[in-house]
Amino acid sequence: MTAPAVEPATGGVPAGHLYELALRVPAARLWARGPDGRRPVPVDLWRGEPVPGDEVLLCACQGPTLDVGCGPGRLAAALTRRGVPALGIDITAGAVTLARRAGARALRLDVFGPVPDTGRWQEIILADGNIGIGGDPGRLLRRARALLAGRGRILAEVEGPGRPTRVYPARLEVAGLTSAPFRWATVGVDGIGPLGASVGLRVTAVTARAGRYFAVLEPRAGA
Q1: 44 in any annotated domain
Q2: Which domain holds residue 94?
Q3: Is residue 2 part of a domain?
Q4: The whole model's pTM is what?
Q5: pLDDT, tens digit, 9 for 90 and up, residues 23-78
Q6: Contact at 8 Å (CB) between 144 and 68?
Q7: How many other CB atoms are found less than 10 A from the CB of residue 34?
Q8: What DSSP designation does 11 have?
């Protein structure tokens, strides 16, 4: 997960500040509040080694890989150790610092801004709920497609069967503090196909592993 890039000017601590706090203080428990109530954000797992299910993403990456919303960099660092050229990008300075310490190449960048090697990435990873970045998954997938090489692939983690695709205002909570609301989104495995088709992508594979779901999307011929 990456911190929200855009937050409305309403009451509350900026969500990015709370995400930074949770990254800096291992004992701080981070929560995300959305339409289904409050759920934990497993920052402690993201700071460590690859977690169950990550092997689906790691094994799929064979060429230059862009990890969007890399957080503390566990995936980008693991790919680097495997000899796969990888770059993690995140808008949170603390996350980028941790990613570099973990051995990843990482830059503080917004995926919707300039990104190095645009049009040359073989794989783009959207893991840990990062398909929700910006609260507009169609826009995010369209942007990811523009970053891909001609025969590249997007590897997106999605919600399980029966989970709806929706956009909603969310908040982060940690140490008694609550963030200002920000736009986020979730996409279910049942909805990723139609969503991808709307931006010229097709789903070529779906894998379930360790209670997680991963979809591979590739540009449609002629789209």
Answers
A1: no
A2: 53-168+186-219
A3: no
A4: 0.93
A5: 999 888 999 999 989 999 999 999 999 999 999 999 999 999 999 999 999 999 99
A6: yes
A7: 16
A8: S
